Amino acid sequence: MIAEPNSIVNLPNYKENGIHEEIVPESTAQNGSCLRNGSVKTFKGKRKVRKQCENRRRNSSSSRRSNQPQNGDVVEAVTLFEVVSMGKRAMQSVVDDWVEAYKKNRDVALLDLINFFIQCSGCQGMVTAEMFQSLQNCDVMQKMTETFDEETGLQYKKFMAYPWILTVTWPVDMDNEDYPLIKPGSYWKKFKANICEFTAVLIQQCQCSILYDSCLMDTIISLLTGLADSTVRAFRHTSTLAAMKLLTALAHLILNLDASRGNLERLYEVEKNRTTGKKTNYRLDQLERKRKEYEQKHLEIENMMNAIFKGTFLQRYRDVVPEIRAICIEEMGSWMKIYPSTFLNDSYLKYIGWMLYDKQPEVRLKCLQGLQGIYEQKELVSKLDLFTSRFKDRIMSMTLDKDHEVAVQAMKLLTLMSQNCEDSLSSEDCETLYQFVYTTHRPLAVAAGELLYKRLIVQETEMEAVSKRSGKQEPNASQLKTLIIFFLESELHSHVTYVVDSLWDWSMSLLKDWECMTALLLENADDQKEALSDAQESALIEIILATVREAVEGHPPVGRGGAKKILSTKEKKIQLEDSNKITEHFIVVLPQLLAKYSKDAEKVTNLLKIPQHFDLVLYGTGPLEKHLDALLREVKAIVIDHCDIDVLEAGSRLYHILCSEELPFCNKVALARAELVDQLVNTLNQLLGTFFKEGEGVCAEEEGIYHIYSTLRRITAFHNAHDLSKWNLYDKMSELLVFEMEHSCLPVQILLPALHCAYFALLWQLASVAKKPPSKENLFVLRTHLKYYCHVCACFFSHSNRDVREKAFMVLCDFLMIVSHQDASNDGTLGLLEYFPTTSLQSKMLLFIQDHIFTEEEDKVKDLAEEEDRKRNGQKLDTLHMKRCLLASYCKLIIYNVIEVTAAAEIYKHYMKAYNDFGDIIKETLSRTRHNDKIQSAKTLILCLQQLFQKHVESQGGGSADTFSASFNNIKELARRFSLTFGWDQVKTRESVAMIHKEGIEFAFQGAAGMEGNCPPPNLNFLMILSEFSNKLLKPDKRLVCSYLLRYLPDPALSRGDSWHSLSWYRTSLLASEDEESSAISSLNEWPPVSAAKTPFKRKFSEGSLHKTNHTETTNRTSDIHYPAHLPSLAIRSRKRLKSLNSCLQEYPSSLGPAHLKRKNSCQPVIKVEEILAEDTDVDVVGADQET
């Protein structure tokens, strides 16, 4: 019998989920079965080895020697561990050699096997054994320990491996968390597979000989159980894996044994019936003995399995290491499939059910995969009724798991449950799961598509009665109707491409049956009572377009999937065949469909997009060329009849594709296009002639306005994709725009397409200039048109209609972005077209942003009905979307230096107030401008705060700013938000923050020269706002900024009192300690005096002291400084180039010589600031290494 696992009474009472983690150090040698170099001291007084059997080379090692090069050396494989890990020989021969060695010398072979499992854990140490029989029972229990010896620095473990008590000793290295099972790389993955294979082959090869000798399995199970109870992670992980694989191998063995026993039972009954009435039968006695032998083996194997399950699984399935828990659950799923008669019951299923709630996705994934193997076998489903009812809701919720793979496997499991377990999923459950076909994660959507196709489309179609109509396409027709009904009921009409993509892998034959789809659309409603409704026809046309796109492109829709898939040769061949099939079918059918649905704008729009996926070369073949004429005829009729922008753009796009120069029939299509445009332009001229009657002003008939509006929209849609310059449309549109500017009576329906058409006309002229540069006279005319068009758009900023204002601003932003970045050609002619907005135009655009973006509209209507309220909320969202587009277009001009960067100051003012609506746009603008120019971006930020502060002072009556008011606190909070945008890298933002403090100090002391006595400057309270940026300064920069601040004080003794509180606040934010403050005051003498003279002076922040200046002289000169009272304009101020440290040292070598003094305890990088006292002053802050 197998010895039960011994309880370790001397170990701490660890909980199953709270085992203390220790890591076994990696083995430094493959054959390091023991420490033989003498570096490890023996235990003094700790233990006495009675019968030591140090791991020895095996007697049969010569039969499995193998060589493996490692770092140029040849390693000789002599131990079992080395042979298995190298994997050079077949595992069956390795096990056979070990079995032979076991039969010759059992103790040596067993110790080699024990050492194999120890070394698989990555343990570099010594394994010794003493016989269990030589010790008293009480002494045995005392040796079941795992302790650290402080004297030797070794950790050792003693445990029972019947018939020995093993002692494993290894050096402790807590920093090394690597052992073979968790090492990366293909070699170690193969090593793990070799361990599993060795365990399985060992059981298989020993089943007829030594498996039942009451020694081998007792020793292995005792060893693995003892190691699995260790606090060392490597021992637990390796032994759990080996034990679980051992139980799996025993499950296979007992299954084969049951089959053999069943055959023997039948043979026994046959022999028994043959010998009825006879006294004795040797054959029957022999079968009886064989049957008892099988029963005994079956009982022994069951005992082995129970010992492993209780000794290892029950202890480790809740281990703190998720990999160990995953191994236990994964193998349990295998046991249930292999040997369901024992393991497939609620006593074992509960463990999988409990682990469905595990916090680690790896464990949850193994649970779902194990259940899939069970639910896919219909004969096993009957045993899962209680489990299904108990854990179905949990599995349903796992489709929303944060781990995508877990969600996918949960959906696959539910699909199996739906197929093989009747009534396990209700109709409400299925409807919930069907909606996952719209998810953006494609594997989950495909899994949901499988459920949708097999449960809804196929099963319900088969359950329906057979239709009266017969034909080959009947099954597909019924399934298509079911799919259409599902699509319409889901009310997600704009996501048809997601449904098709989800079903593509499961119902490809259905979705590629375009003959059936078009037959459903073309059938006569009078002949069939079950004809499609109007909504169903629209849905089917959307499905046709989605399937055609999926078949030709072969890529998932936008938002689902990452990079485009690289198609294989086979997939490319299938794609080409589908493209030919689509072209050959729809070339014939598409004109018929366009003729039938020519009045429906939505259907026609989708149908006109289908030719984009044609193999258009087939149109040039003889039999199919006549269908091209039919297509052009139908498209022309549709363009003339419709004014919907989607229809017109689809038709324009179709003409553009068919006019490609690579096609043989391009001239024919170009002629048809010219005829259509001629007709449209002639119609427009006639309508405009009627509209503008000489001497009578405007003939504003409603019908005439509609015709002009619809004709303009058609021409504008075609001008977007086609060059219509020869019709000189710009002059006609310009005439309309000028008339509106003079009379302001043009209807909005005419004005909007005219503005857009003129924009397209100018862009096509620019494109033609890039291809073939014209004369300078023509360029001058074009430049005049560009400037005038910008002027026209600016005039429409004040139009009474909001749509016109927004369209004019949007078009102008796009137009300026294009014309301001014209690349000059070799002769410089294109450079004449480069145009930047004037100061007046920039002011108008900024005023438009202030009035239309950041001005809140009052909601005067209240107590609306629910439907009206929903409609109004939708309008608010549309308005917000348009505002975001307008602001993004304007900010793009700032980022690309089309508009001066300082204009962004007006936008930054609304960073907090409009953060929810526009915060992301403003923040991105701030980040991009800072990346382009750090100094100018910093000046823009401080300019924003200065303007807000001046506005606050003016609101207070022109006196000193009230620091306790709400508006002042809002400015202070805005400054804090600005400081947060600089991040944590103070070195990277050093120059920007220094510029902010410099500009802020100068602004705070503006007007100080005119103040008398102890009166502070009028802007002194701005220092409190500036203090929000102090924490972004480096420590040496804080002292330098404080020194710069002291230069502006007329007399430090006079700058006291409540009126100077802001100054004290700011100084405290810079210098926290008195030593730093005294250091800054003492360094004041190192600064040159502030003078109003225009000659530049040099000031240096270095570890050497500068030329000393009398403090009184500095004070006297400070009072004579003239501070400009006005803020800088929006014009871009010039910025001096930052100098490198080398150039600074070369320019001022004498001031850094050894003759000069050095600052006390200075250890920060050298900073140098070069300043010229003028309006556009810059701080030059450069870091350098410490001078010695």
Characterise this structure:
One of its GO terms (cellular component) is cohesin complex. Keywords: Cell cycle, Cell division, Chromosome, Chromosome partition, Coiled coil, Meiosis, Nucleus, Phosphoprotein. One of its GO terms (molecular function) is chromatin binding. The protein has 45 helices and 11 strands. The chain is mainly alpha-helical and 1188 residues long. Strands 3-6-5-4 form a 4-stranded antiparallel sheet, covered by helices on one side. A hairpin with a 3-residue loop joins strand 7 (692-693) and strand 8. The model is unreliable at 1-75, 131-144, 465-472 and 1080-1188 (pLDDT under 50).
Query: For the terminal residues, how far apart are their CA atoms?
Result: 82 Å
Task: Count up the helices.
Answer: 45
Question: Can you give the mean pLDDT?
Answer: 78
Measured by DSSP, the beta-strand proportion falls in: under 5%
Low-confidence stretches: 1-75, 131-144, 465-472, 1080-1188
Multimeric organization = single chain
Percentage of helical residues?
A: 55-70%
Structural class label: mainly alpha
* Strand arrangement, major sheet: 3-6-5-4
Reported for the largest beta sheet, the result is: 4 strands, antiparallel
The total count of strands amounts to 11
Shape: flat
The rounded Rg comes to 43 Å
